[in-house]
Amino acid sequence: MATPVIMPRQGQSVETCIIGEWYKKKGDRVKEGEIILSYETDKAAFDLESPASGTILEIFYQPGEDVRVLTNIAVIGQPGESTDEFKPDELSSTAGTSTEPAKSEETVQLTDVQESEEHVITSGTGIDEVKISPRARNLASRLNVPVSGIKGTGPGGRIIERDIENATASLRTTKLASDVIEKEGKKPRTEPTGIGGQFRTGDLITETPSTEEKYVTKKISNIRKIIAENMHASLQNSAQLTHHISADARKILEYRKIFKSDPEKAKGENITINDMVCYAVIKALKIKPEINSHFLGDSIKIFNKIHLGFAVDTERGLMVPALKNADKYSLPELSRALNLLADQCRNGNIDPKLLASTAASFTVSNLGSYGVEMFTPVLNLPQTGILGVNTIIQRPADLGNGVIGFIHVIGLSLTYDHRAIDGAPASAFLKEVKDQIEGFDIKTD
């Protein structure tokens, strides 16, 4: 009996997945457990294994299509077996509404392409080569329609007969004007002056390059849509306020030099400034746990453990994985764990459960590497706080004994939900982070 291939559910919050690439095509033999497809959720990419051995009898969805989870996307079985019972309802209903005229139009189009060899006509400009079917070429010749500038709708962008017919609705030229368009690359004016609404050679002009600004319109990805919806919902459904402060960064810069020159003290890890800031944040959350929480409308969930979320920039968009129980790690262990999760995000094999906004109890977002001196991070609801980490800059400070000099400071931007936390405790937490950075010392751990 045939076996359906079902789009899996990756996490309770995932409702749809995007077909990535089929590694097998209809008619191919596959073995149970063999990878046949890649697909993507809103955050991560996965491979799908064949649920059975046999032949791929039907594929219902193509790469790039957005498919609801638990939907049949293909059928595996033995040649000759029926696949009708596995066809998704949405596809069955679409097929049922098709009309006969639509089928006839498709048949004409396919016949135009399939029954003829591909011909290439080279325009007189010597620049563009136009792919056109013989039927379309003959029709264009009879109607004096220049083929340059016509966008083909056939396979590979080939111009077919229907494209010429559509073009005649807006463009008719005399034979001489048509030859000039093809050879010299001229363009018709807005209104024709010839008999029957034809463009004559006198109606043709040499098109000058436009000095107007060029731009590209790109369709946003599914991930971008979800990020946009989440950011809008965060700002719309919470009372966000941001406080800014600077911390003396001399201690963590000194430790950075120590770790780079003495890998043994770093336990073999590449401990970064961000790792040390996250470590300081964890210590501050232990002392000021009120902000290590979720606001639930009529209650606040304050966590005993610290589940640290941190922003990771990937090719597919921003991801915020959560490091569970981050307070149990030493600094080298924390560095290793954060780096591992970041790599999983970039490689697309992160556990979707760790990307849910409810997975973390507090988040850190670092834009310091981009030279950002101050920004307003957006809450990852229902979390009540997120810390933005800025770049390190030099500022004047009192060095003691009346001496003023420049020191390195790091900017910190705390956004919090004012529905859950007042300004005073939020500021107290931010000051605690500052103190932990300024007094950074792994010897006391």
Characterize the overall form.
extended
The CATH class name of the largest domain reads Alpha Beta
Task: Specify the structural class.
Answer: alpha+beta
Q: DSSP helix count?
A: 10
CATH fold-level assignment of the largest domain: Chloramphenicol Acetyltransferase
- Identify the quaternary structure here: single chain
CATH architecture of the largest domain, please? 2-Layer Sandwich
Unreliable stretches (pLDDT < 50, length at least 5) are: 94-128
What number of domains? 3
> Beta fraction of the residues?
25-35%
Rg, Cα atoms, Å: 32 Å
Helix content: 25-40%
> Could you give me the name of the CATH homologous superfamily of the largest domain?
Chloramphenicol acetyltransferase-like domain
Average of per-residue pLDDT values? 82
CA-CA gap between termini: 63 Å
* Widest sheet: strand ordering: 13-22-21-20-16-19
Strands, count: 22
Largest sheet: 6 strands, mixed
Could you explain the architecture of this structure?
The chain is α+β, with helices and mostly antiparallel strands. The chain folds into 3 domains: 3-96, RNA polymerase II/Efflux pump adaptor protein, barrel-sandwich hybrid domain (OB fold (Dihydrolipoamide Acetyltransferase, E2P)); 110-205, no CATH class; 222-444, Chloramphenicol Acetyltransferase (2-Layer Sandwich), CATH 3.30.559.10. It is 28% helix and 25% strand. It has 10 helices and 22 strands. It has helices spanning 89-96, 100-114, 134-143, 161-168, 175-184, 222-236, 250-261, 273-287, 331-347, 423-438, and strands at 3-6, 16-22, 29-30, 35-40, 45-49, 54-59, 66-68, 72-77, 119-122, 129-132, 187-188, 204-205, 240-248, 293-295, 300-302, 308-310, 312-314, 317-319, 322-323, 362-366, 385-400, 403-417. The strands form 7 sheets. A 6-stranded mixed sheet has the order 13-22-21-20-16-19. A 4-stranded antiparallel sheet has the order 1-8-6-3, with no helix packed on it. β21 and β22 (403-417) form a beta hairpin. α3 (134-143) runs parallel beside α4 (161-168) and α8 (273-287) crosses α10 (423-438). The longest helix has 17 residues, at 331-347. It is extended, with a radius of gyration of 32 Å. 31% of the residues are buried. Residues 94-128 have low confidence and may be disordered.
